[in-house]
């Protein structure tokens, strides 16, 4: 009975007829938490600027007639935040997704309109701005919208805009900025975004002095630090209203690949069930997937991660079917790749989740939405293929979809007409669209550099979509597991804290030129007031204290005859390096492959991390294993260009791996953390076959032992190692080794030279004054620790120096040198003609574009060629098998590369740390033909046949292209280039048409 209570399993099997049978056992019903019974707590703190004399007062209660009334009782955190607003002071509201932060934003708008004040509402993305505009317009009448694409009622009292537009208005000294009383920053945790986070930081620093702020954020552990920064920068109090309260508690389950059900690992009270987790991991078969697919080296060989198999055989189908039968819908299934989203959705071909009335409604909504498209655009594969899925209540949402289809899917999901939505993580950001259940198809994601576990912050963001307030007693999160997971990693993932809000501040030429041009600002002041600088200043006392502690520890270490000990240690290091050099020669594939037969005894180097130089080589314990097999393995890894992709990077080249049976503990697939002498078969780790690189072989024995054919049972592996133990016992003076020259026929001058040097060093060690010392070992280890401590102190002092100077000080100097060398600014920081052009360009590389403009490239080119050339600035994905460029476009692209290389070289000469070739390669020609054809008047269905890309990705690039053209229009106008201005305007007219620029359904 106890086991059943711990393991909450929903068996999913198929009967003899192939129909799915779902077990009768129910998921544990949640116990309502204290939060839901009214005991909802929140933390309310206030940050004051230094030297601020806070008046002795209590924040007044909301006035008798509030600016906005709600048909429900407000939560404590909402009431506290509203009190701060009524007191006229800034507030940061940090709460979970769907906790109700929007209530505070709406109240701030209602209060501003009541008091005849102007208010600005900013959001991270255009699509979210459009959605918020629609919501605000339904609630308040005096609302305008300003994004890069659309401007509606720019003189309205409440303006909804993207943060980029706000920053642009600040730089240009817009009249709106003089009038604004309140600025609402939605999703302010976006500030940690690597690319765009700096925009938030600039906007906050440059906000008007008299403005007050409402910051809405997901839960961040360092909310107080952020509020302290705002208080310091704007010399005003900033309140923090923080709550961990989740309106709908969550239950977290694990579904092991090929398993028979779900295991409850975190209950609605937040308790992690270790035994249940262990059972889930044990249920995960390392050899068989749910459909019988082999899993090798942690990768499914067929069917793909997160849903191995096809159709009804796939794990994802079983989970979705179970969710529907148990009425746990709607469900959002998160994948980390656009392609995986679509593949998983296609596996649902046997599911029909909508009744006839719902199908008719879906059909009506869909065709009403796409009616504005041309007849040709209606025939696009994406349009025609999506409708049958939507009718069955299944949707797909990722950045590769046509924008109009994404919006249709959002509307259908909100209306309950989509029961199962396959989405990438971008769906978890922005508009509140909760579901009852959230499924994660993977526990790893590819972040553009490597595969890694999803962070607790990412898990919190996505799992926050589970549980609809007022509709569900609890939300359900299901984590599909297809590889072994340590309990500590699982705990930190599902029960960890949110990611801290750290600065992603970085300098740009556009920012620098705009700062130079503004009378009231300068770059140094912006850097000094940045959150990045604030965090560095805060860390300084702690860093200084650490240096002091380390220096005191170093001074306390006293070693007898330290100079002699250091001399001995140097010799040992030389000896180890020489032995490694010999090993790399002898155990190169050409010499050692003939001797890697199964059963041969092999002596292994400890992993690099565990090698201890302080233990003399001759007395180091031997680590022996048995060779089982060897094979070629992939070598170097080629970078993936799709940030949303979870497909493995492509491997090129190869090396060799030896499979060795030894006593060990393993991390990852093949990395050995520790190898233990097989003589001690104890709790340090069961015998296992591990893959080692050839470089970890220290020597090969002349002996071979019998190994069983099947080493899968632990008993077989233990018997094999006991045979090794017996062999070692029979050769107390050491097992005979293969001689590199006589047996392995190593013929190398480098090998002979290294052997002679080893003999010399060994002789020096034997004759050393400390060779016979009984305390040598401990003294060597102490000296190693002392040297490591010196290295740590050097690093810590470097950190102190970095933290005590102005951040980016050297980079600022370098960027100024670049601007002077290229003629954008004078030595006195006066912005020149070229600088005025670069000031207007923020959506692409301002230096290269300005150089092209002043080099006359745009004057000589046709409209189509200009559009094609500009496409190189906005496209980042890599497309395979591209056709060769036509001659005129190839010539233009060569000019672009030439200019980019010249600009890159100037930056390097001015001490900027960039790779010129990487910089030149960042201008990609992949969609030049597409942009040319589109500008020429081709239909969208025709341009989609030129390259194989997602429709949404192409539309996003074309919209960015139009943004760049609009900025070039303003830039040309600013320097009086009327002909160029007209040319750019004509290009905008040419490309701004049809489905690429179809109006948003939210407007």
Automatic annotation (TrEMBL):
Domain named Helicase C-terminal: residues: 345-517
Q: Which domain of life is it from?
A: Eukaryota
Q: Where is this region: Disordered?
A: 284-309
Query: What positions belong to coiled-coil segments?
Result: 540-567
Q: Which UniProt keywords apply?
A: ATP-binding, Coiled coil, Helicase, Hydrolase, Nucleotide-binding
List the CDD domains.
Answer: DEXHc_Mtr4-like, SF2_C_Ski2
Its name, as the record gives it, is Superkiller viralicidic activity 2-like 2
Source organism of the structure: Sphagnum troendelagicum
